[in-house]
Amino acid sequence: MSVRIAADRDRCIGAGMCVMTAEQVFDQDDEGVVVVLIPEVSPEHAAAAERAVASCPAGALRIVEG
Fold this sequence. Notes:
Blueprint: E1 3-7, H1 17-21, E2 26-28, E3 34-36, E4 40-41, H2 43-55, E5 61-64
Antiparallel strand pairs: 1-4, 1-5, 2-3
C-alpha cells in the first residue's frame, strides 16, 4: 500500500529535514522550499516519508488519507 504525501509550500521554512530523511521523495527548490518528487510514495519509501512528515519543524508536510 502506498502513502500519499502533500506539502504546504507556503508554510515550509526550508530546514531540509525532509530531504535528509527521505531524499527519494523530497527535494528543495532554489529558494529552499520543499518539492515533493513522488506524491504517491511506494511501500519501500513509505517509512522514510512518514519520518520526514513527523520531523518537519514547520508542519508543512502531511500524509493524505484516502
